[in-house]
Amino acid sequence: MKILIADDEMITRKIIELRLKKDGHEVIVTSNGQEALEQISLQDPDMIIADIMMPFTSGLEIVSVVKRGGHHRKVPIIILSSMGQENVVLEAFNLGADDYITKPFSPNELSMRVKRLTPAATNLFVKINERT
Amino acid sequence: MLTFLNFNLSSIGKSINYLRENIFTEHVLFDITIFFAAAIIGITGFIFVYLFRKEKIAKRKNILQASIDNFIGEIAISESENELIQVVSNQDYQNLLLQVQHSKFYRKMLINELSETSRKFRGSTMTNVLWLFKKLDLEKQLLKNFDKKKWHKKAKIVQQISYLHLNSNIEKIFSLTNDRNESLRMEAQIAIVKMTGFDGLNFLDNVIYPISEWQQLRLIEELSSHIEPKAGNIIEWLKSNNLTVVNFALRLIEIYRQYDFYNEVAICLSHPSISICSRAVITISTISKETTADLLIAHYDTYNESTQITILKVLQVIGTENQFPFLLSILNHHDDTYKLQAVKAITTISKAGIEKIEKVIDKSLFPWNIILSQIKNVA
C-alpha cells in the first residue's frame, strides 16, 4: 500500500517512515501541507497520515481538501497531533478524518491503526457487519 | 545681511581652496581611494569566506542530522534487544558512534535528538531510546552543564532529564523548584511532576515564589497523564502563606473531587484574601453537601461584587427551594446583574420559580420585562 506522510518534524517522519516500510508499505514523505497536497494529486496514495500543525497548509486543511470531493475522497486519513483537545478532535472527524492519534504515540499502535484502515480490513469489517 | 552672506561664502570658498591645495592633494586622494578599494575587497572576501564556512557547517550538520535520525529511527522501531544490538553493530552506525565519541558537538546533537524522540513517542520506542542512551553512557555528558550558571542551559537540561526519565537526578531538579529564576523554576516544577506524578507536588511545601495561573494549568495538564491522584500535604498547602499554593490546592480538590477536604475548603471561605475566597466558593460547590448553599449565603455579605455574583451562579447548580427567601431578597438589588442571576437561580431550581418572582415584582416595568422575556425564551 502507498502511504503519504505529512509532518514537519524530521525525526517523527523518519520513525513513521521506517515503521511503515518495515510493514511492507511504500512511503511518500512530505514536510509540509502544501507539498503533501501536491504529492497527493501526483502520486495517488492509498492512505494519508498528517500532522495538524504544519507550515503553509495544516493537516485539517488537507482533510478538508481531500474529503471535499474528487477521486481521493475515499482515501483514509489518519491525523497525528499533539493537540488532544476535544474540539480539535471533533473538528478533524467532522471534516472526514478516519482516525486521530494524539502525540506522544507509539509507532506500533500507528502500524495497527494503519492495518485496520487498509481496504482489505475495511471490506472484511463490512462483510462481518452484513452477516450479523 | 547681504554683506554678511557674501563674507561667509567667500570664507567657505577660501577654506575649500586651502584644503584642496594643502591637505587633499592628488596624492592623498589616490591613497584614500586605494584604501577604500582594499577595504571593500577585504570585506567582500570575508563575507564570502564566512558564508562558505557557514554553508559547509550547515551541510555537515544536515548530513549528520540525517544520519542520526536514521540511526534513532532504526533503534526506535526495533522489536527485540537482539535487533537493537544488530542496529548498533551496523558498520555505518559504528562510524557515526565513533564520531559521536570524539566530538562534543555530535554528542550534544545526539542527546538532543534522543530527548526529543522520547518526548514525542511512547511505548517500545521510548524504551529503546532509553536503552541506547544508557548504552552510550550519555548521562554524564548531559549533566556536564548542569552546574553552570546560565539558566537557559540548565532549564534545557532539566527538560531533557524529564523527557528521558532519568529519575536518579530527581533531587537535583527538586532543588530548582524554588529557584529565584522564574523560567528555570517553572521547568523544574514541570519536570518533577512529569517524572514522579502527584508525589512531585511536594515542592509546594517549600515554594516561596508565586505559581502563575499559566504554570498551574501546565501542572494540571501534566498531572492528567498520571492516573491515581494523591492528596499529599494538601491540608498544609491550604494553610500556606503563598496564596498561589492555596489557590492551586483548591484547584486540585475541585478537579479531583476530593470530598474528604470539605471542612478545610469551608475554612478557606473566610480566608483574608478575597481571591482565595472566590476560588473556595467554586471549589466547595463541586464537593457540596446539603448545607453548602446556606454556608455560602452566610458568607455572602462579606464578599465583593464578583464573588457575590459567583455565589448566585453557584446557587443555580446547588441551590434548593430553601434558598428562595434569600434569592427573592436579591430581586430588590439596585444592580441588574444581581437581579438577572437571582432570577436564573430561582427558575433553574424550580419550574414554579417564575410564578414566585412574578408575585413580588411588576413584570411590565423595566428591567423585569426584559429579564423575564429573556428567561422565558431560554426556557
SSE arrangement:
The complex is a heterodimer of chains A (132) and B (379).
Chain A: E1 2-6, H1 10-22, E2 26-30, H2 33-43, E3 47-51, H3 59-68, E4 77-81, H4 86-95, E5 99-102, H5 107-116, H6 119-131
Parallel strand pairs in A: 1-2, 1-3, 3-4, 4-5
Chain B: H1 2-23, H2 26-76, H3 81-89, H4 91-102, H5 104-120, H6 124-135, H7 139-143, H8 151-163, H9 170-176, H10 182-196, H11 213-223, H12 234-238, H13 243-255, H14 262-268, H15 274-286, H16 292-300, H17 305-318, H18 324-330, H19 336-349, H20 353-360, H21 368-378
Helix pairs in contact in B: 2-5, 4-5, 5-6, 8-10, 9-10, 10-11, 13-15, 14-15, 15-17, 16-17, 17-19, 18-19
Q: First CA to last CA of chain A: what distance?
A: 29 Å
Number of helices of chain B: 21
Strand content of chain B: under 5%
How confident overall, as mean pLDDT of chain B? 90
Gyration radius of chain A (Cα, Å) is 14 Å
Instruction: Report the portion of residues of chain A in β strands.
Output: 15-25%
Rg over C-alpha atoms of chain B, rounded to the nearest angstrom:
36 Å
**Terminal Cα span of chain B:** 90 Å
> Whole-number average pLDDT of chain A?
89
The SSE order of chain A reads: EHEHEHEHEHH
Silhouette of chain B: flat
Structure explained in plain terms:
The complex is a heterodimer of chains A (132) and B (379). By secondary structure, chain A is an alpha/beta fold. Chain A is 51% helix and 18% strand. Chain A has a five-stranded parallel beta sheet, sandwiched between helices. In chain A, strand 4 (77-81), helix 4 (86-95) and strand 5 form a beta-alpha-beta unit. Chain A starts with a strand and ends with a helix. The model of chain A has no long low-confidence stretch (mean pLDDT 89). The longest helix of chain B has 51 residues, at 26-76. In chain B, helix 10 (182-196) runs parallel beside helix 11 (213-223). At the A-B interface, helix 1 and helix 5 of A face helix 2, helix 5 and helix 6 of B.
